[in-house]
Design goal:
mainly alpha
């Protein structure tokens, strides 16, 4: 898997993911699962929908 999520995008995903997970746990909601997806894509640096649609926010050599 080639990285397609850049630094700022990753940081936003991680912070929002943690916040949504915390809110989901606090309110007993399924939204924590959405937060988990954001957290995992932020930590891995790869997002399946980005790959599917050809998006890339990751700076690579030569850009």
């Amino acid at each position: 898997m080639k990285r397609n999520v850049g630094g700022v995008d990753r940081a936003v995903r991680i912070v929002l993911g943690l916040a949504i997970i915390a809110a989901g746990l606090a309110y007993g909601s399924w939204w924590g699962a959405v937060g988990a997806v954001l957290l995992l894509t932020g930590l891995m640096g790869w997002c399946p929908p980005y790959a599917l649609f050809g998006f890339n926010t990751c700076k690579t050599k030569g850009d």
